[in-house]
Amino acid sequence: MKRRSLQEPTALILCAVADQPRHGYAITQEVKEISDGRVTLRTGTLYSALQRLLEDGQIEVHSEETVSGRARRTYTLTPEGRATLTAEAERLRATAVEAERRLAAHRPGSKGAVA
């Protein structure tokens, strides 16, 4: 069964928790870093996405603690989430390879280029 491609914020959230568990604020900072500042997750967007990913079994709560009177959850990938992120990375890689192939075929001076 082919998986549907992920929306960029969802893929970035999964990527942010792929190497280690992170709490909400750390996820937003990691997403900003991974995207080189292009994507800044708003709080509502982040927690809606986290809830959806929890319900879909892509992530799970790694730990819960109380910090300064507030509950803090850290999230981590599930095996299903790891498979989803792996498939997304492969899809993006294949698209990039094909784009590069087609661009190279039509560079000025290359065989097959349109004059």
Automatic annotation (TrEMBL):
SUPFAM superfamilies: Winged helix' DNA-binding domain. InterPro entries: Metal_resp_DNA-bind_regulator, Tscrpt_reg_PadR_N, WH-like_DNA-bd_sf, WH_DNA-bd_sf. Pfam families: PadR. Residues 13-86 form the Transcription regulator PadR N-terminal domain. It comes from Streptomyces chrestomyceticus. This is PadR family transcriptional regulator. Transmembrane segments: none annotated. PANTHER family: PADR-FAMILY TRANSCRIPTIONAL REGULATOR. It comes from the Bacteria.
